[in-house]
Design brief:
The chain is mainly beta and 785 residues long. Among the domains are: 13-91, Phage tail protein beta-alpha-beta fold (3-Layer(bab) Sandwich), CATH 3.55.50; 242-254 and 279-288 and 319-332 and 369-683, TonB-dependent receptor, beta-barrel domain (Maltoporin, Chain A), CATH 2.40.170. It is 5% helix and 55% strand. It has a 22-stranded antiparallel barrel. The longest helix is centred in the N-terminal third of the chain and has 12 residues, at 27-38.
């Protein structure tokens, strides 16, 4: 039998190393995932593969040939290279009957694919693809399958919060949240300060000075969370850490797709639904297009007794993501993509304390909107021996608006609306060289141009008037580098630094609507800011490792509207200074993630100076420096597999934050903790797999999480929230490409109080509560084409 061979100059891709994460399931679907994650095309005409199952996951860094061997182990199939990036799955030829078998070669026998070394989880957000066991810091990897079932009922950032206790969020509503990692939390309001968590879609930055866009986590390979600060590699705005969503890239030479739909019902509320679709379309032999589209409606469950309306807090969402991948040869990869998402919250998510359950009184509706759009281009050049050059550029526009009830006692209904816009152009280029054991280096350059506006306007008797606003323009350019060297067997040292040049200007928006530029100097504007990092990592065996790490982070300053406490300036604005955080962390890892047992422990202390915080007063949102603080954290996680089909996992974090030197306007009596930092938070998960006849499988998963008490703000806003537990459960049945899931979130129907804020104009009364979403039943049907 003569097999086709690659053309001249086209070497098979099978020897290249990739990061694979393929869960158990039908072999046909696993082949599709292998092709996507290796960036190759996989074709077969054998329908029997849909009835075969992959019983053990394929995870870690390995060659494409090794991944094929693992996937096809125990079958009579093999992968044959037709072209450099195209493989055909075919049956092995039977051995000749008349010719004796050739004598065995003297080469050592290859390892069995089933008993090979444990796969490694690779932290790509490190920008050097460092294995998790060699990464000197706290990192977490979450797959789409982990957040699609029994994770709070929403497949977005809220599901990640339910999965990772060290990740916290405010609860103003989808598309309006601020994220916090490991107790690095500044305030409960969304305003002009830069985010404390850097967010990325692949290599593209998603935020600068805007809240979490809350992108739906569909068709993704995984999510990585690196606890911060991460200033050296990710720049300003990564005080708490970095969250990186890694989407499935277009797969060359492969037609694939997925369709899904679902229905939901909420106790004390109404019914909702969702639809989604994924299509992977090859374009000749050198490219492919991948399209993702989705839409959903989350029904409301809060009643307004003053307006006599039921279920007012409905949320509608729609979005799409598309990417074109071009690979002119085996060295170059070009990705061009666009992301769009719109979240429409019809009313506020809060209720009145002391009123009947899930009710409040308000004179007007309080809707909010998040409109997010981004276009990006990424070009990668790969060489042998782990060398690569990556360049990316993106342009994003994020428009947000929120309406608040401003009706006074005995007056006509009126409202105040806050409108903010953010336009951000970002580019980065970096060269990376990777070696075994996490050694290597990365050198890069980065630049951002950010222009954001925040305007407040009032509406009374159908007449709208602009009150005033503020604008900030930032030019942020930087050079950065980080490298890891081996000092002794099993001991590595990491050092890096980022040099940032920042230029900032602002303008005030007058009541007439005219813009007037200001010429007030901003601290750190035009200055060079250095953010170093140092780490030691010791791995005495393949089973455990330990590390010690020092890192810095900072955020830019800016202009803000004057607040009532400080008095009004003649120009109607004030300046808030940059803040800076430095942290020392130590930790240890034991076992192999995905193995029979693994555990991790970390302890950290953070010194935070000139803390920026957002507030809301009668003049609207403003930002101020509230003082200095200390954050202590102790966290741990474990995973245990007592049997091949049972898995138990848990995580816990304890924090103690203190505002040590409050600014005069925010001084209080006694110790003041920082906002939104629960003293303790934890999660416990158990899941069980069953194999059924006809190659069907069932997965049952249950989760219980607890969020301890935290505080809404500092000074006059020292109000309690949190101190609740939530239980979720789900079951998934899979056969071939068909998956049916039933998910029950908050099945005990706990009310709780996630957040003591809904309307910032009246929050000082202390009567606002944001309950957990009541018990929700979801049924979803998904079919992989």
């Amino acid at each position: 039998m003569v097999l086709p061979t690659p053309a001249e100059g086209q070497r098979p891709e099978s020897g290249r190393v990739h990061v694979f994460d393929i869960p158990p399931g039908p072999v046909s679907g696993a082949l599709v995932l292998l092709g996507i994650q290796a960036g190759i095309g996989v074709a077969t005409a054998d329908t029997s593969l849909a009835r075969r199952r992959l019983t053990r996951p394929i995870r870690g860094r390995m060659t494409t040939a090794r991944a094929f061997a693992r996937l096809l182990a125990g079958t009579d199939m093999r992968a044959v290279a037709v072209m450099a990036d195209l493989y055909r799955i075919e049956r092995r030829s039977p051995p000749p009957r008349l010719r004796p078998a050739p004598p065995p070669r003297a080469e050592p026998a290859p390892r069995s694919p089933v008993t090979d070394l444990p796969p490694e989880i690779v932290v790509t957000a490190s920008k050097r693809d460092i294995p998790l066991t060699d990464y000197p810091g706290s990192a977490h990897v979450v797959r789409e399958a982990d957040i699609a079932l029994a994770a709070g009922g929403q497949q977005d950032t809220r599901a990640l919060v339910a999965q990772l206790p060290m990740l916290a969020t405010t609860s103003l509503g989808p598309g309006r949240e601020k994220l916090f990692i490991r107790g690095i939390a500044d305030s409960s309001f969304a305003g002009g300060s830069q985010a404390t968590v850097g967010q990325y879609l692949g290599d593209v930055q998603l935020n600068y000075s805007a809240p979490d866009p809350n992108l739906v986590l569909l068709d993704i390979a995984k999510v990585e969370l690196l606890e911060g600060p991460q200033g050296t590699l990710h720049g300003s705005g990564a005080l708490g850490g970095v969250m990186r969503v890694i989407p499935n890239p277009p797969a060359l030479g492969t037609w694939a797709g997925e369709l899904g739909t679902g229905v939901s019902t909420i106790a004390h509320g109404r019914q909702g639904g969702s639809v989604m679709g994924v299509a992977n379309v090859p374009v000749s032999d050198w490219g492919a297009i991948r399209l993702v589209g989705y839409g959903s409606r989350t029904p409301g469950y809060i009643d307004d007794t003053q307006r006599d309306l039921r279920d007012i807090n409905r949320s509608d969402l729609k979005g799409a993501r598309g990417a074109l991948r071009i690979r002119p040869d085996r060295h170059w990869t070009i990705d061009l993509g666009h992301v769009y998402q719109r979240i429409d919250n019809r009313d506020g998510q809060y209720v009145d304390a002391g009123a009947p359950r899930l009710t409040r009184r308000s004179a007007v509706a309080q809707p909010s909107l998040n409109n997010f759009a981004m276009t990006f281009l990424t070009v990668t050049r790969d060489w042998r021996e782990g060398q690569s050059l990556t360049a990316t550029v993106s342009l994003l526009n994020n428009d947000l608006s929120a309406v608040y009830d401003a009706t006074g006692s005995g007056t006509a209904p009126s409202s105040i609306e806050t409108i903010s816009t953010a336009h951000v152009l970002t580019g980065e280029i970096r060269f990376t060289r990777r070696h075994a054991g996490g050694t290597g280096f990365v050198l890069g350059a980065y630049g951002t141009l950010s222009d954001d506006r925040l305007i407040q306007q009032s509406t009374r008797m159908s007449e709208t008037q602009v009150l005033r606003g503020i604008g900030n323009r930032a030019a942020d350019v930087a050079l950065f580098g980080e490298g890891t060297v081996r000092l002794l067997p099993g001991v590595t040292a990491t050092a890096g630094v980022r040099a940032t040049y920042l230029d900032l200007s602002g303008l005030t928006i007058l009541p007439s609507g005219a813009d007037r530029a200001t010429a007030v100097a901003v601290p750190a504007g035009g200055d060079i800011n250095l953010m170093p990092s140092l780490a030691l990592h010791w791995r005495p065996s393949t089973r455990w490792s330990t590390y010690l790490r020092y890192q810095q982070g900072s955020r830019v300053g800016g202009y803000a509207l004057d607040d009532a406490e400080s008095g009004s300036s003649e120009d109607g604005f004030r300046i808030f200074r940059p803040d800076r955080l430095q942290m020392i962390e130590t930790g240890a890892l034991f076992g192999d993630a995905g193995g029979s047992f693994d555990a991790r422990l970390a302890a950290s202390v953070a010194d935070w100076r000139n803390i920026q915080a957002d507030f809301y007063d009668t003049i609207g949102p403003y930002t101020a420096n509230i003082g200095d603080g200390i954050v202590l954290a102790l966290e741990g996680a474990m995973g245990w597999r007592p049997g091949p089909s049972l898995r138990i996992g848990g995580a816990l974090i304890a924090t103690r934050s203190t505002l040590t030197s409050p600014a005069p306007a925010f001084a209080g009596e006694g110790r003041q903790p920082l906002p939104d930092t629960p003293a303790i938070a934890g999660r416990l998960t158990a899941e069980r797999h069953w194999s059924l006849p006809d190659n069907a499988t069932v997965l049952l998963r249950g989760t219980v999480r607890y969020v301890g008490r935290s505080w809404l703000g500092v000074g006059p806003l020292h109000m309690a929230q949190g101190d609740y537990a939530q239980a979720d459960a789900g079951v998934a049945w899979t056969r071939g490409g068909l998956t049916l899931t039933m998910d029950v979130s908050n099945f005990l129907d706990t009310e709780g109080n996630r957040f003591s804020l809904g309307n910032p104009l009246t929050v000082r009364g202390g009567r606002q509560r944001t309950p957990l979403q009541p018990r929700t039943l979801q049924l979803k049907l998904k079919y992989a084409l």
